[in-house]
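tl;dr need the bound structure. longer version: we got a ligand (V0D) that a collaborator sent over and nobodys looked at where it sits. i said id run it. heres the input, straight from their email, havent touched it
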Amino acid sequence: MWNKLKRWLSGSGQADAPIAIGRENIPEHIAIIMDGNGRWAKRRGLPRVAGHHAGMKAIKRITIAADELGVKVLTLYSFSTENWKRPVDEVEFLMKLPQEFLALEIDELIRKNVQVRMMGWRDNVPAHTLAAVEEAIERTKHNTGLILNFAFNYGSRLELVTAIQTIAEAVRRGELMPQDIQEEHISACLLSADLPDPDMIIRTSGEIRISNFMLWQMAYAELWFTDVYWPDFDETMFRQAVSEYQRRARRYGGI
Ligand code: V0D
């Protein structure tokens, strides 16, 4: 009802038809660049941090929606290795959010059989933040449902640099010949080594770029962009993205 009203207010004139999603061809791995929290707040005359806070509710909504659709992995880009350049107060505030989010949601995540993970560098992360994240990972590590993978202190080029270092070291030790290096060696050295590549990447807030996110893994991903700010992103829009994914024919370079 509310979504219908919102669509009516925004003047699309569209009836509230249910979004058709087939049970076949559900994307196995969806990755989301959760952008627009600061702008969402600014538009309301609120401090940026209020937008970050509002973004946590969207995480909950989309996690539930992804789980209900049978998505296996949901990766959420919450903090990049470049985000340390933001004002210190903002970074300090952001570093309290994983604890707050997990304190609020861990019981339901456990009840829903969700496995929490972190994809990113542990160094530089404040001890209180890391302790909360590690505790959630530990408490959910045997869960067999949706993998909720937080890309947190993550950067794709650094991930590739460390992969290249690992492979160069193997070559130096004589365990691998340069001409024998395969795509699989590179995939196996990434932080996402035990996850499938994302089938779809969603970015909110109208920016049409990838911002150092899963550059290797996104080779065949469908890209989906929306102008909606992350705190306003809801399950209807998420289902719209999945529905469109199913309509696009994926060919992996074939015909
Ligand atoms: C702000 C919108 C949950 C995006 C949501 C420090 C930006 C709220 C987490 C989180 C953030 C991270 C790891 C984890 C569990 C939860 C989070 C950050 C920002 C960056 F294991 N929300 N959230 N992390 N925001």
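gonna send this back to them w/ a short note. DSSP finds nine helices and six strands in the chain.
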